[in-house]
Amino acid sequence: MDTEHTYHYGVMARAIALIDKADSPLTLDDLAAQMGMSVAHFQRLFSSWVGVSPKRYQQYLALDHAKVLLRDHFTTLATADAVGLSGSGRLHDLFMRWEAMSPGEFKRGAAGQTIRWGTFDSPFGPAVVMATDRGICGLGFTAETGADATMADLMARWPNARFTEDPATIRHWAEPALAMQGETRLHMIGAPFQLKVWEALLAIPSGHVTTYSEIAGAIGTPRAVRAVGTAVGRNPVSWLIPCHRALRKSGGLGGYHWGLPVKRAMLAYESAQSDAKAG
């Protein structure tokens, strides 16, 4: 496994912790010094990783950035194109095709399915990727939860499947997906209500956010906000099905299955890249 992105995420996670502890915004010199790096190295690291300077990136890592996103980059799902449970879409520069497992297959706990898995490098540290012969069905991040817990969590979702470690076979899907380039396939394994929620998440553009209540209304269950939150948290294909883009109406981050530092990192990463492309 290439460790470049893992190193980048480790640096970023440390930067988040330092920014949160500071009483006021840190200067570039202060932040670099507390990270134990030269200003030049710190500048190069962040600029190569996300495309903006550390000074600019610190704005995206601020605790109140979610409120800024809701104010300036809120997506109303009622206006989004319906994609159906079998379709395609674009995420960053990645073209995805997806299909859903039948309800009967899901109820049987994916019995008869062989799920191959491997650990790959990602912009947010090591990622466990799982796939059936029809596409990626699981993606979890280990930086905050640990590799063993991430594996156990994903495997428990499909208790009757056969699991085999085989990164070489699924690499042609996993690496484009994590790099957000090329084309990959998703095989969405979930209950019908969960699939509706995940479908709605796929309609949120990168650099934008929505709310749990907005998703509930968009799928025709406006009072089921709590159930929507649960389904968002059970998304098995994190980052690709962008559950990190769902926030509370108050501007709070809400939860994130693989740890809130990862969610904040994803939102900051996408915001920085979106703004950099815009100008």
TL;DR?
The protein has 279 residues and is of the alpha/beta class. 45% of the residues lie in helices and 18% in strands.
What is the mean pLDDT?
85
Helix/strand-derived class?
alpha/beta
Strand order of the largest sheet: 5-4-3-6
- Judging from the principal axes of the Cα atoms, what is the shape? globular
- Give the total of beta strands: 9
Low-confidence stretches: 80-86
User: How widely separated are the two ends?
Assistant: 34 Å
Task: Enumerate how many helices there are, as a single number.
Answer: 12
Order of helices and strands: HHHHHEEHEEEHEHEHEHHEH
| Fraction of residues in β-strands | 15-25%
**Helicity level:** 40-55%
**Largest sheet composition:** 4 strands, mixed
Please tell me how large the radius of gyration is.
19 Å
Note down, in words, how this protein is organized:
- The chain is 45% helix and 18% strand.
- It has helices at residues 4-21, 28-34, 39-50, 54-61, 65-72, 103-107, 147-156, 167-179, 192-201, 212-218, 225-233, 260-278, and strands at residues 87-91, 93-100, 114-120, 127-132, 135-141, 162-165, 181-188, 210-211, 246-247.
- It is α/β, with parallel strands linked by helices.
- α4 (54-61) packs across α12 (260-278) and α10 crosses α11.
- The strands form three sheets. A four-stranded mixed beta sheet has the order 5-4-3-6, with helices on both faces.
- Mean pLDDT is 85; it is low at 80-86.
- The radius of gyration is 19 Å and the shape is globular.
